[in-house]
Amino acid sequence: MQRKFAILLVTAAAAMFGPSAQCQDVEAGRKKAEICVACHGPNGNSSQPAYPILAGQTARYLYLQLKDFKEGRRTDPQMVPFVGNLSREDMLDLSAFFAAQKSRGGSFKPDPAKVAKGRDKAAEVLCTMCHLGGFMGQNEIPRVAGQHYEYVVKQLKEFKTARRTNDAGNMASVSKMLSDADIDNLAHYLADLY
Question: DSSP code of 67?
């Protein structure tokens, strides 16, 4: 009985996790990412503050975001045209490629006083419960350390106003408690964490 249960458990795990691990190809993702460079920069290090830095992001998060864009759970007029024809394999390869890159952080110069206030606010609302210490992310929770100030502000405001809802409600519930000053301070803090 225990052996049958163990075989069933291994089979279920392979079905859930096997294809993703087998399909991810960093080198195939590098080739497929050539079109992404215009906005997200070489190797996912965007120099344009409106576009997120993808380098060093978790592969699972990247895959889920691409899937959400493709399936309409997340919208952006500039992203949607690029994801429509992506296959599951394409999304896995792109995610693996960007996750394997090293983030260089943005060029924003944070205000030290706002960084301190942002650090305090992050501790108060327990951001590290999901984003982990150092804000490096985990699984479907994004890395936000070193992310562009402007991008962080935009995303927090979109969660707060329910324009972005593809997070199972976690960020929406936290962001509703944030003032505009809190959002500004958090964005300074996160930009400084590189």
Answer: H
